């Protein structure tokens, strides 16, 4: 499918989705968020895709909700339309691993979109901020919850109440970002990470992702119980047998995704 606000591409088992509204620094309007949901559905359905990379431009990953589009909305509009809930969060429920490759501004909903991904790779120029309170609203796409769980209350309060932006390096130190790379190499790095994931067994990667994400949803004992069940289930796969057999035979595994 051809999109108006996105570019999509697949290589080496990795689906690449590029936000493409340069005139508005990739601000998230209704069209873009609906197209993004559709693109993720499509990547999830494609058997040759094992990981998904989401990126923007060098200048901006995304500058948040499209303020011009939502400026005149009323409570009744946002409540009845289920603003955000209706179309923004598809990437957070992707079962395949997701990587945000961020350069420039990741602001407001743009920062929240990056945080919906499993990992963030940041170019040195990346800036992460949740400045919604400066507009008279609060973060509403998971920012108050996801940021706080990752960086802790003090830094989350500082960012949300003062609008302070984190540099890429500060974001890495705070645990928001897994890698900081030179400007212009963030997509290549994320695609390499995705290709590495794609060389593994897709179901095993999905099980591992599910287990890690449960760390944010459950108590420790419940999380470890789930982890153990998921580990046991790997023993029902041919890929688990192949991985261990390949190790003992001193060769590379040939995973079949089953
Ligand atoms: N929405 C709409 N248009 C935008 C947005 C945006 N979020 N961000 C940038 N643009 C547009 C600008 O208006 C400008 O358009 P034009 O050329 O037609 O004037 C163009 O993109 C380029 O932007 P700038 O000239 O401002 O570029 P700069 O490099 O000078 O500045 C910034 C970049 C700092 C990112 C700046 O554009 C900015 O501050 N943008 C707004 C960032 C922001 O506050 N985002 C948070 C939005 S709120 C949110 O995401 C969650 C809301 C959830 C609750 C909603 C309840 C209803």
In terms of per-residue confidence, which ranges show pLDDT below 50 for 5 or more consecutive residues?
none
Helix content: 40-55%
End-to-end gap: 29 Å
Total beta strands? 10
Categorize the overall geometry. globular
Mean pLDDT: 97
The arrangement of helices and strands along the chain is EEHEEHHEEHEEHHEHEHHHH
Strand content: 15-25%
Q: Which strand order do you get reading across the main beta sheet?
A: 1-2-3-5-7-10
Main β sheet profile: 6 strands, mixed
Overview of the structural elements:
It is a single chain. By secondary structure, the chain is α/β, with parallel strands linked by helices. It is 44% helix and 16% strand. It is built from 11 helices and 10 strands. The strands form 2 sheets. A 6-stranded mixed sheet has the order 1-2-3-5-7-10, with helices on both faces. A 4-stranded mixed sheet has the order 4-6-8-9. Helix 1 links the parallel strand 2 and strand 3. Helix 5 crosses helix 6. The longest helix is centred in the N-terminal third of the chain and has 16 residues. The chain is globular and about 65 Å long. The protein starts with 5 loop residues before the first strand and ends in a 10-residue tail after the last helix. Octanoyl-coenzyme A binds next to helix 2 and strand 6.
């Amino acid at each position: 499918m051809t999109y108006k606000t996105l570019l999509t591409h697949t290589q080496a088992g990795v689906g690449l989705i590029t936000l493409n509204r340069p005139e508005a620094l990739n601000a998230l309007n209704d069209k873009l968020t609906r197209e993004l949901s559709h693109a993720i559905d499509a990547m999830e359905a494609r058997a040759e895709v094992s990981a998904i990379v989401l990126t923007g431009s060098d200048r901006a990953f995304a500058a948040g909700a499209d303020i011009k589009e939502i400026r005149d909305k009323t409570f009744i509009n946002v409540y009845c339309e289920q603003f955000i809930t209706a179309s923004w969060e598809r990437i957070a429920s992707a079962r395949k691993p997701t990587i945000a490759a961020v350069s420039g501004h990741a602001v407001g909903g743009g920062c929240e979109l990056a945080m919906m991904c499993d990992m963030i790779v940041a170019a040195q120029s990346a800036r992460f901020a949740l400045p919604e309170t400066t507009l008279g609203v609060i973060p509403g796409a998971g920012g108050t919850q996801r940021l706080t769980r990752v960086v802790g209350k003090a830094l989350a309060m500082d960012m949300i109440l003062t609008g302070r932006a984190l540099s890429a390096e500060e974001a890495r130190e705070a645990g928001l970002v897994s890698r900081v790379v030179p400007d212009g190499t963030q997509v290549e790095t994320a695609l390499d990470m995705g290709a590495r994931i794609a060389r593994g067994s897709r179901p095993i990667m999905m099980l591992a992702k599910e287990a890690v994400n449960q760390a944010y949803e459950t108590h420790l004992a419940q999380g470890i119980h789930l982890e153990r069940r998921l580990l046991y289930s790997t023993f029902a796969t041919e890929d688990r047998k192949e991985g261990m057999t390949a190790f003992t035979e001193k060769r590379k595994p040939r995973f079949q995704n089953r």
